[in-house]
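Quick one, T. Sequence first:
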Amino acid sequence: MKILDPLYNALVHRIYDINEKDFEGVAMEVWKFQYENNLVYHTYCNLLGTGIADVKSLLDIPYLPISAFKSHIIKTGKWDSSAIFQSSGTTDSIQSQHHVRDLSWYHRNASNGFQRQFASSGEFVWLGLLPAYLDRPDSSLVDMVNSFMSASGHQENGFFPIINKALIDRLQHLCHQNIKVVLIGVTFALLDLFEQFEVPVWENLLIIETGGMKGRGKELTREEVHARLRNKHAQLRIASEYGMTELLSQAYSTNDYFIPAPQMFVSIRDISDPLSSAGFNQRGAINIIDLANVDSCAFIATEDVGIVYSDGSFNVLGRLDNSDLRGCNLLYT
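Structure tokens:
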């Protein structure tokens, strides 16, 4: 999709090619653009008494509560949606909706973020252990993986809604060929796969797990999940993905901490005072700037709890009390 507004195109170009030195300047431009063109966000900022003259740095920018995606259509400007991503949830919960102006923008940013941390998505065979994907054409995760499969173009790419013989056979074949493979899956399903089946493991296999148990058992820390996955295979390569319906960017962890994509900035707010910031190494609720959300809202107050470190990396410790259960693992049956 080509947008004819040269100022908008220049801003999008700066976001895609962003570096750490330019981040604050670009983020301030996005803040002004969204304050002036996003009715929901503009109204929220005004209710807080925050206008253009009040925002002089990133510290002054208000973060929109993520729950707004459940109750409002969040758009900056007027445009037709090329896709609407919806969060998973329990049968009685209200799903978040993220209206997407241009799917290719989402795919480009997701691919760039993955390549910055690993390698080009096109270098891998992609296997998705993503339960009920056929019933969720509006899943941002499924859409991202599908775009990675398209970039790869490998005939062995495939989604697996359940653990079956076809998945084991596919892994065995790829192992014998020593092919580079990403197996991305919901955490609960990956635990079932590696704990209940004989799974081939080789140096070119990368496992990416996408979150916690989300209502399917005792919530586990990332360290506990990785330890259980490595119980039979100590050398198994594991990464974790941090993403959500309301964000068009992802963060990945290959060790102890998540590294945000270049167009992301993570900070912590005080749990008892959501308008106050917490410092490095302090536990609090996670705020995220995701400049890829240029067409929706780039400044999101999540319902996750975590810690941010001085190098920009962060850790996710859990959810705020009384937050809705959410995430792809609710789909696992």
